Amino acid sequence: MELVDFQRQKLASQQAFVANILQMDVDRVKFLVRSYLRTRLAKIERHARHYLGEPMYRDRMAQSELDYATGFVELDNGHVRRSFLDQLPPHLRGLDEVSAEGLDMVTKPDVDEAVFCRVRVTVGEFQFETSEDPIVMRRNNIFITRYSIIRDLLEDGKVELI
Q1: If you average pLDDT over every residue of the chain, what do you get?
Q2: Which residues have C-beta within 8 Å of that of residue 52, sequence separation ≥ 6?
Q3: C-alpha angle with apex 51: 158 to 107, nearest 5 degrees?
Q4: How confident is the model over 19-30, as pLDDT tens digits?
Q5: What is the structure's pLDDT at 102?
Q6: Which residues touch 96 (CB under 8 Å, ≥6 apart)?
Q7: pTM for this structure?
Q8: Residue 146 is inside which H or E element, if any?
């Protein structure tokens, strides 16, 4: 009888250990998803006016992201107007105009920013602007490069940002 009790206790402790490991893994995945969503929302907030003004970017956003960006821009516009724009002359109150010097009030993402990308399908030889020789891009290779260089590959689904 003692042997049976011992085996039950041992089994219960093993099950508790496995359950603990699984819960830790679930918590890790939750953290990664939350981190991804925070980063995505920060990017949307940073360039919301630009994304909403370009049909190409609007089409790439989920409906919930569009709703969030629209709400964010409305709140930001109201805050900026109440804070200081209402005190300026009417011809200086626009938030989406381009100045005579070519300065745009709507910030755009920096396409020369460095990004990490993973090759989804073998591309073969690819000429990076900074490299003298072409580089062979094989499936699952990871590169760090400027976004502008891999934009076409990304749109074709040959690489993904990580």
Answers
A1: 85
A2: 58, 66, 69, 70, 73
A3: 110
A4: 889 999 999 999
A5: 59
A6: 49, 53, 105, 106
A7: 0.68
A8: strand 142-146
